Known about the structure:
Low-confidence stretches: none
Largest sheet: none
Number of strands: 0
Shape: globular
Number of helices: 9
Distance between the termini: 14 Å
Amino acid sequence: MKKPHVFPHTSWAAKSLWSIELKSLSVLLCALTSIGFGEGLLLLSDLGSAPWTVLSQGVATQGQLSVGWASWMISLIVMLAWLPLKLKPGLATVINIFVIAFVLGVTTYLLQKPTALYARFAYAIVGILLFGIGTAFYLTCHQGSGPRDGLMVGLCQHFHWKIGIVRTSIEVLVCVFGFLLGGVLGIGTLMFAFGIGWVVQYTLFFISRVPYFRHKTDNVI
């Protein structure tokens, strides 16, 4: 029986963590753009921040820091958890910092906040879908991951757990700790926490089943 892979080996997968190849780089940039746009829509919906932002708010409140500094500190601590999981950074680890932040800024600058409740929920739902789909595609470039995605990747690879369960568990725990520390929860926060992992998992399942995307047959967990 074949050993299951967390991520399918796609036709655009890079040859190494730091190699610059046109196909993989194009998919990586498009995927990260999707994440940035999705995060921007979630922010504009004004239904609650993403779970990690809630945690950053809580840490900032307790430590009397800015949310930006708190977020940076959390990312650093999370990356320390990479060591026992034997994860390595790659091109995507660096690029996602700049691309997601840039697209997020452009999205929130160009689009207006919706006022109607149905529009706000539409922004949140589309944002979560774009975020999850983008996450799945950029991880299948096999060029590393962001600090927080890396935690999910490492746990799934090490224990062979399902991505949906691992990501949901992480996001819910982050929500709880953030709330206890003084972060602000919203319905959008809970939608993200309970939905994002399954969007990622089912997108990976779709990628692994499309012959054009798949480089070789993979049994995705």
